[in-house]
Amino acid sequence: MAEKMTRKVFAMVAVALFVCALLIPSRAGAIEVKKLMPGGESAPSGGGGGGGGGSAPNPMSKAQQQALSDAVSSDSEQFVDQESEKKSSGEAYVDLEHAKPHIFPSGGNVTVKLQAAAYKAKGKKTGEEKALVFKYKSKGNSYVLDGDPTWEEANAATAKAK
User: Fold this and answer.
1) DSSP per residue over 61-91, as a string?
2) Are residue 122 and residue 74 in the same domain, yes or no?
3) Nearest 10 degrees: Cα torsion 138, 108, 95, 161
4) All residues at 6 or more sequence positions from 76 whose CB lies less than 8 Å from its CB, including other chains
């Protein structure tokens, strides 16, 4: 008799926990967390290497962010294609398809670094990251590439910062 009563109590507690779990919003506070993250709603993408605490407000307007995004997308297309070709042919490559953009605005100029993992031939990670660096000048409502894009070792910059 006591065993039946224990089972019923356990079943009722399990049902109550299940119902409570359904009623509690699963995304409670998600919006606030996103706003506090570096590169949250105000940053154009990966941010500019924001530190702890809060990130500074983005100095770029939404229109400038979109213009920069369009310019980077257009200018990086050939490099993404080149690295994809290297990947498919089994050569060493940089995975620009999954690159993290880092944006550094400075006055009317902007530096964008597309940072991604480097791979040896046959798709083995090297443990290093490389960055394709674009420098832009603001021209009215658009951004114009200022010189040719360059490659740099991203790990060296990260190691110096630590």
Assistant:
1) -HHHHHHHHHHHHHHHHHHHHHHHHHHHTT-
2) yes
3) 170
4) 96, 114, 132, 134, 149
Residue 48 forms part of a structural domain: no
Same domain as 88, residue 21: no
pLDDT (tens digit per residue) in 140-156: 888 999 999 999 998 75
Could you list the residue range(s) of the whole structural domain that residue 25 is in? 2-36
The number of distinct structural domains making up the chain is 2
87: which residues sit within 8 A by CB, 6+ positions away?
A: 93, 95, 119, 123
List the single range of 19-23, 91-95, 117-121, 143-147 with lowest mean pLDDT.
19-23
- Which band of pLDDT confidence, cut at 50, 70 and 90, is reported for residue 3? low
Same domain as 13, residue 69: no
pLDDT digits over 20-59, tens only?
344 444 444 433 333 333 444 434 444 444 444 555 666 7
Residue 135 host element (H or E)? strand 125-139
Tokens matching residue 5: 């009563």
Tokens coding 45: 């993408």
81 and 148, same structural domain? yes
Shared domain check, 140 and 69:
yes
In a domain, 54, yes or no: no
What would the two tokens of residue 31 be?
A: 């919006």
